[in-house]
Design a protein that fits this description.
Elements: E1 2-5, H1 11-25, H2 30-40, H3 43-51, E2 56-62, E3 65-72, E4 77-83, H4 92-106, E5 112-116, H5 122-127, E6 131-141, E7 144-153, E8 170-173, E9 176-186, E10 193-197, E11 205-210, E12 218-220, E13 226-228, E14 234-235
Parallel strand pairs: 4-5
Antiparallel strand pairs: 1-2, 2-3, 3-4, 5-7, 6-7, 8-9, 9-10, 10-11, 12-13, 13-14
Helix pairs in contact: 1-2
Length: 245
């Protein structure tokens, strides 16, 4: 399996591999899948990235056929790695990952990656190469935000007791301004949940800010269970801190 830099002549093959891989291994609606392919993998979308000297777009080729591709963006993050389902098991994914690792080693940066939450197999593949989920991010897709998982070398996981995002003093919710209370903190699996109040002096909590992703889409269930609808951060009933004892 040969891994080489992609050229403009590879654009049609890259789009085809992406579509088949997304259709097979991602929990996406047909409309979302086509939007994703059009926005990121169409010939027009690939034009600038093929020629970008700060990015890295590679293809895995065997006997003249492109079986997969990987892309590292200008911030040295592995954004995409797809292998044609019909060619899986032949080493294309491993060859691509090995080449990405070697390229980033030359730049003296560790391998970090982002994978869509909808991926059913990508996370396990990354873990085989010593990467661990360390946070969340999001992908802009036709005006909508699609959640992603961030992966980095094992041992670089952030402290779940500290916010991952920069915490604002106030947050606009439903057209109104709410105050974030850093002292009203509930532990989460990835980062704390912080109480939201209509006024700084108000004793009535409006809701919560997820400090893993910055979302206010936090639902509350029985026994004080909290769940972020954007990134999946959780506070389970058995996660008590000293404030609950």
């Amino acid at each position: 399996m040969e891994v080489r830099p992609a050229t403009r002549d590879d654009r049609v093959d890259i789009e085809s591999v992406a579509r088949r891989s997304l259709r097979t291994s991602y929990s996406l609606s047909p409309a979302t899948l086509e939007t994703l392919v059009e926005q990121y993998f169409s010939a027009e979308a690939l034009d600038g990235r093929v020629d970008d000297p700060d990015a890295l777009l590679l293809v895995a080729e065997d006997e003249g056929d492109v079986h997969g591709f990987a892309e590292v963006d200008a911030e040295d993050t592995l954004r995409w790695l797809h292998v044609d389902p019909a060619a899986r098991g032949r080493g294309a994914g491993t060859a691509l990952m090995d080449r990405v690792t070697a390229e980033l080693a030359e730049r003296e940066v560790p391998v970090t990656a982002r994978v869509l939450d909808a991926a059913s197999e990508g996370r396990g593949f990354l873990e085989r190469f010593g990467l661990t989920r360390t946070g969340t991010a999001s992908l802009e897709l036709d005006g909508e935000t699609v959640p992603e998982h961030v992966y980095a070398p094992t041992g670089s996981e952030p402290d779940a007791g500290e916010p991952t995002v920069e915490v604002p003093a106030t947050v606009d919710v439903d057209g109104g301004e709410t105050t974030v209370d850093r002292d009203d903190e509930v532990p989460g699996t990835d980062a704390p949940f912080l109480g939201l109040y209509e006024r700084a002096s108000d004793d009535s909590r409006w809701g919560f800010l997820c400090s893993e992703c910055g979302s206010t889409d936090v639902s509350a269930g029985g026994l004080e269970r909290l769940a972020c609808g954007n990134c999946g951060n959780l506070h389970r009933a058995d996660q008590w801190d000293e404030a609950y004892l």
